[in-house]
Amino acid sequence: AQSVTQLGSHVSVSEGALVLLRCNYSSSVPPYLFWYVQYPNQGLQLLLKYTSAATLVKGINGFEAEFKKSETSFHLTKPSAHMSDAAEYFCAVTHSWGSSASKIIFGSGTRLSIRP
Amino acid sequence: DAGVTQSPTHLIKTRGQQVTLRCSPKSGHDTVSWYQQALGQGPQFIFQYYEEEERQRGNFPDRFSGHQFPNYSSELNVNALLLGDSALYLCASSHRRGTLYGANVLTFGAGSRLTVL
To answer: Residue A25, Cα to own-chain centre: how many angstroms?
Structure first.
């Protein structure tokens, strides 16, 4: 079975400060990991994905995440927060195994607030 | 290029009623997954369809059923609605081949918000 745990349901940072959203995963097979963002009253949008290539993954809007197998972590970071980054962020896990499409499991989410 | 479209965007039902939600996948996608997102929670996987068959299912009762049509569009049906079924229902599409090449990326619609009174 696979799962993800997002540490901190709410994170608040000042504009221009570092953003760090934490995600730990559990998987019995090599995982594929994702970060999605959800703005109010919208669906989810892919920020970035890890699919067993480079461990440091760069995504859209200046976000990046690092896959650390030893720590079973996939934390999301951004060097300098913008007001427009305020949203809900979801970490997700799946795997690629055989030819069947695997389901994607989401964490409970972290709400990011940006202080002026 | 249209993304994933869902209808209706909002609806209100009463307990015991039945509801049908519809989804048109992104052009070029053949797989549709449905998720339930309760307020303040992450999306929970309901089931996935491709080649017009249910391929995987999450921990949801049989009251939740679905269908996929030859044009890859999909419906989610919920019978005997309960108050706890109130949620945002998200449809996501992907291409099955994406899994073979290690890139099972979902494209989400904006969702259908169901309120059960």
So the answer is: 11
